[in-house]
Amino acid sequence: MTDTLPAPLSSDRLRYIDALRALAALLVVWLHAASTFAMTSPETAATGRWFTAIPGYIDVGHIGVVVFFLISGFVIPFSILPDRAAPVGSFAIKRILRIYPAYWLSVPLAALVVFWIWGTQFTTRELLVNLTLMQDLFGVRSAEGVYWTLLVELAFYALCVVLLVTGSLFNARRIALLAAALGLAFVGIAATYWLRRRFMSTGAPYWFLNLSVMLCGALFRGRWDAAAGARRDVVADALLAAMVACYVVLLPAAALLANGPKNNEPATYALGFVIFLAGTRVVRIETRLTDWLGRISYSIYLFHVIVFLAIEWWLLRRQPAGSIWRTQHIGIYTLLGLASTLAVASIVYRCVEKPGMRLGHRLAERWQQRSMRRAATAVPGA
Q1: DSSP 379
Q2: Which residues in 66-100 are b (16+ Cβ under 10 Å) and which e?
C-alpha cells in the first residue's frame, strides 16, 4: 500500500483549472457588481431583481473563493520540487513574486477609491501595513475587502513548507489526517454556536475550515494523478470521502437547522465543492476564452472592486440624481464594469504579473544554483 501523493504527471498548465479560475473570479465579480451598482439610483436598484436577489440570498462571491481555495490546494503543493536544490527558498521566491507585485499596485488604488475620493481617512500607516499583507494580523483596516483571502493563501504556503520540511507534503495519510483535524476543530467551534441556535459572528474559526479545504484540493490532485494500478491509501481515501460528505451535506444542513436559510456560509463551501468537482471530473472546460480569463483571474480579483467603485464615484458624485447616467439598468453598469475590469486586468497581467513571475523564476534558479555550489564546496574533495 502506498500513502504517497505523486508528483504531477506534467508541468503543462491545466486548462480546465483556468476555466475554474475564470468562473470563480466571475462569481466574485457578480457579488460586488450587484452590491455596488444597485446603489446608483432607486431606478437601477429596481432592475435585474434576480441579479441582486441571488447574492443577497447566498454569498456567490464566497462560493468563488472556496473554488479558489480548492484550486490552490490542487496546484500549489505540486509546484514545490523537493528533488531539486533549495526547494523551500525557490518556492518562497516564486510565490512572493507571484502574489505581491500586482497586490502592491492595487493597494494605493484601493485606498483611493474605497476611502480617499469619498473623503474618508485612510492613514499612511494603514497604507504601509497593507503593503505587507499582514493588516488583519495587526488589526488594521484593509484597503479592499477581498484581501483577506490572500492572507489565507500565505498561511497555506507556510503550511506547505512545514509539511515539506517534516516529510509530510506528499504523504496522503498525513495530509488527510491534518485536513480532518482542522475540519474537526471548525466543527467543534461551530457546534458551540449552532446547538444554541446562534449565528457564528466571528470569522476566525473559518481559518481551520479554509486550510482543511485547501488540503482536500491536494488530496484530490494526488488521487487523480496517481499512476494506473497504484495502490490506494484506504485511510486517506476514507477521510477524504468523509470530509466531502461533511462539507457538502452535513455542515450546510446543520447551519440551516440552526440559523435558517439566510447567512448559511457552510452552503457556500458545499457549492464550491460541487463546482470544483464538476469542473475537474465531469465537464472539463478548455477554451481560449477561459484560458485567457484564467490567466488574468488574479488581477480580475484584485482590481474589479477598484474599477467598480471608480465608476460608482463618477455616477454618484459627478452626475445629478435622476440623470440618464444614473438610472440605467444594472446590467449596463455591470457590463461596463466588467469590460473595464478585463481591460485593466489584461494590462496588469502583461505589465506586472508576467514580469514578476519571470523574475521569480530567474531568482529561484539562481538561488538553487548557489545552494548547489555551497553544497558542493561543503563536500570534501568535491
Answers
A1: S
A2: bbbbbbbbbbbbbebeeeebbbebbbbbbbebbbb
